[in-house]
Amino acid sequence: MKHPLRKHIEEIIELSDEEFEYILSHFKPTHKRKHQYLVQEGEYVNKEFWVLKGCLKSYFIDDQGKEHILQFGMENWWITDYEAFVNQVKSKTSIDCIEDSELLYITFDDREKLTASMHKMERFWAKKSKMGRIALQNRILSLLKNSTKEQYELLLKQYPALFQRVPKKMIAAYLGVSRETLSRLNS
């Protein structure tokens, strides 16, 4: 049976057994419990995480104490504070576990070494980066042009499993509305 990370990577590039073993040697497993942090605002970020099992959220707290969720992370998703990771600066966001989670992580240095020594992985991450930019653009467009109800319905259509795993207050924080507003959408 193929390793889940190999299946994920091979959605984009072909790998030999030796190539995958080399790639996997750059990753380390970690297990986090519900409510444990992967990244805390104000810390340097040296790891990018790939979710084997679990659900996470990337968020920030504004000056009024309101939580704004930027991203969820579920199985086969990548998550970190990318600005902090790539630029090696302090994080503007926090990431914590909504559920007990099993992850693989790669450090910044190991990712740099891996992409320098294996151009296939450079192509893999370039494609993933492009797909992430497209998803972000679509989210911004949805926020700008769609009603809250339309945004909610689109999220439900794209990620139905998320609604079984995430409390409504987090869906509201992702959509930028109150829990009460979200409740009215469901009635």
Keywords, separated by commas or semicolons:
single chain; 187 residues; alpha+beta; Jelly Rolls; four-stranded antiparallel sheet; 9 helices; globular
Quick overview of this protein structure:
With 187 residues, the chain is α+β, with helices and mostly antiparallel strands.
Which CATH class of the largest domain? Mainly Beta
Q: How much of the polypeptide forms β-strand, as a percent range?
A: 15-25%
Structural classification: alpha+beta
CATH topology of the largest domain, what is it called? Jelly Rolls
Characterize the overall form.
Answer: globular
Q: How much helix, percentage-wise, in residues? A: 40-55%
Element pattern in H and E: HHEEEEEEHEEHHHHHH
**The CATH homologous superfamily of the largest domain:** Jelly Rolls
| CATH architecture heading of the largest domain | Sandwich
> The biggest beta sheet, please?
4 strands, antiparallel
Distance between the termini: 45 Å
Unreliable spans: none
Q: What is the number of independent domains?
A: 2
The count of DSSP E runs of length 2 or more, i.e. the number of strands, is 8
Q: What does the average pLDDT come to?
A: 93
The side-by-side strand order for the widest beta sheet comes to 1-8-3-6
Compute the number of helices.
9
Rg computed from alpha carbons, rounded to a whole number of angstroms: 17 Å
Structure explained in plain terms:
- With 187 residues, this protein is an alpha+beta fold.
- The protein has two domains: 4-128, Jelly Rolls, CATH 2.60.120; 146-187.
- Helices cover 47% and strands 22% of the residues.
- The protein is built from nine helices and eight strands.
- The chain has helices at 4-9, 17-24, 82-87, 108-117, 119-145, 148-158, 162-165, 168-175, 179-186; strands at residues 28-32, 37-39, 47-53, 56-61, 67-73, 78-79, 94-97, 101-107.
- The strands form two sheets. Strands 1-8-3-6 form a four-stranded antiparallel β-sheet.
- Helix 4 crosses helix 5 (119-145).
- The protein is globular, with a radius of gyration of 17 Å.
- The mean pLDDT is 93.
